[in-house]
Amino acid sequence: MTGSTGDTRSRIQAVALELFTEQGYEKTSLREIAERLGVTKAALYYHFRSKDDIVDSFVSDRLERLDRLIEWAAEQPADASGRRATLRRYSQEFFGDDGRNVMQFFEQNRTVVKHLASGQMMRDRMLRIAELLSRADPSPAGQLRAMLALFAVHGSLFVLRGDVSAAERHDLALEIANELLDRLGEEPAGRSGPASGEHPGHA
User: Fold this and answer.
1) Judging by beta carbons within 10 Å of its beta carbon (0-12, 13-18, 19+), is residue 128 exposed, middle or buried?
2) Residues 36 and 71 in one domain
């Protein structure tokens, strides 16, 4: 194979991710990955011994970036400006080509991913980011709004139909997510007033 070891490793990751999202993780073999790369299986084995190894490698790259984001987000203020800045940076990481492709893989291969350690680690990072977003309102409603704000970013790739550009998806995702974050501290509809089972006018 031509190029440096790092370049070869990156090419394997990119091609494997492409095949995993095209036809599914379970239906993709190491032989198919090698064939698309134009190398032998032996050459592929030099870098990765299994498909799980490939997944763990590109997820590890994402985890490192998310860890840096989490460290940065923890230093931001817990107010609306800090939340918006954190969400903006998260969306930029997510909408980058590699981030978008990795998240698409997770979405399309959820049954497989839940059995991989890397899948749990990605979920742990998301929970940590949601926790940072909801610092000003750690109530159940606040935690849920923060997590749904992150889901709005993710869902923009899979829910929106029709001819919607990546930039439009990004802007709409941020708009909806910020609407959720701006409501942190509000009492959910139906939760105010007399407690369940009580009737107005009764002691």
Assistant:
1) middle
2) no
Tens digit of pLDDT for each residue in 66-100? 999 999 999 999 999 999 999 999 988 877 766 67
Question: Would you say residue 191 lies in a domain?
Answer: no
What are 165-189's pLDDT values in tens digits? Answer: 878 888 888 999 999 999 998 877 6
- CA angle 57/12/129 to nearest 5° reads 35
Q: Is the pTM of this model over 0.85?
A: no
CA angle, corner 183, sides to 179 and 188, nearest 5?
120
CA-based nearest residue to 87, from 101, 73, 103 = 73
- Output b/e per residue, 3-20; b: 16+ Cβ within 10 A: eeeeebbbbbbebbbebb
Give the number of domains in the chain. 2
- CATH code, 38: 1.10.10.60
Q: How far apart, in whole angstroms, are the C-alpha atoms of residue 23 and residue 42? A: 23
End-to-end CA distance of the chain: 81
